[in-house]
Amino acid sequence: MCFTLIFRLSNNGAKRHLFSINCTKFQLFYYSTAPANVTNSSNLLVDLLVNSVGFSKEKAISTSTKVTCLKPGNNKPNLVLNFFEQIGLHKTQIKTLVSAYPGLLFSDVDNTLKPKIKVLQEVGLSGSNLTRVITRSGALFHTSLDTFIRNLDYLRELLGSDVDSVAMVIKRAPWLFSRNLPKAMPPNILLLERVGFSSMDINKFFLRRPLAMVQKTEWLESVVRRVEKDFGIPRGSPMFKHGIEAIVNFGESTLKMKLEIFRSFGWLDSDILTMVQKLPYCLTASEAKLRKGLEFFMNELGYKSSYIASHPTLLKLSLEKRVLPRNEIFKLLKEKLLLRRRLCLYTVVSYPESKFIENCVLPFRYELPELYELYMKSKG
């Protein structure tokens, strides 16, 4: 009927006007009906988010607008919420997850969610570890099951029979499931092997810096060049691998900013190189931590940049929890002339806690009975 009318329209102008009116009525009827259903479904979703998830009305309305798969009579949201509760997610965790990934509410529980949870449980994730993975990356549920399993199989192949390592990297970086690991990682593994990393080194590097292993190989090559040429750490040095691990943490602009902090305190580039070659991890400290450390050691204690560069551990230790409390004890012992052998602050702050108590607190408990209490109080 419709095709006949369309054919006649091309030959009869009068009928064209009549049909266009009928067609318009049809379109008005169609579009006035569909939005009504969608609106009703949207209202039901808003009610669900408020009553079952704990959203405010405003947040629920905002979240519902991000969902494009609303259909009348769709019971998936209730099934998904029930499933999340069954696997141990608390209401606050569900709220966080749905807020970040509202589309999850329309996942297929039996064909999408359950199979992935089962796979995660098979590698040793359960309880709080499992819920942590889920809440940290709901995106893993948007990855196809085939991709999910393929990535997990690759992790098992890479890390071997060490189930704990597989579980650890998933906990640390659940977003890995959204990548194509069998394609992204092999070129970077080959690069690290060429510059002297063993299989064990690569596994450790991956566990600590998973993001670096899925970057473009050209980027990782630039990190290797920077460690070798800019900081003068040769591949044969024990610090070379640590240098790679430190530098992959930040981009070029962040690195320049950190180096400028040292220069602002009068450091020469030779001092900076000495420090990095001795302890590359110094560069991983936050800018605020570096400034506070340099302010204390150089401006308050009067240390020279060359001394700090040759004792870089000073900048990695916690100023508030370790250096300052022990410095208070060290100053007091010096004032009371109780130090029976020559000690410097570097040695004092380098002691493990038990050795510090044994060497710098307990021997003076009779001369200064308040020493231990003072130390604990200064630690906060």
Automatic annotation (TrEMBL):
GO terms for biological process: DNA-templated transcription termination. Keywords: Transcription, Transcription regulation, Transcription termination, Transit peptide. The keyword Transcription applies. GO terms for molecular function: nucleic acid binding. It comes from the Eukaryota. InterPro entries: MTERF (IPR003690), MTERF_sf (IPR038538). PANTHER family: CGI-12 PROTEIN-RELATED, MITOCHONDRIAL TRANSCRIPTION TERMINATION FACTOR. Belongs to the mTERF family. This is Uncharacterized protein LOC104215076. It comes from Nicotiana sylvestris. The lineage of its organism: Eukaryota, Viridiplantae, Streptophyta, Embryophyta, Tracheophyta.
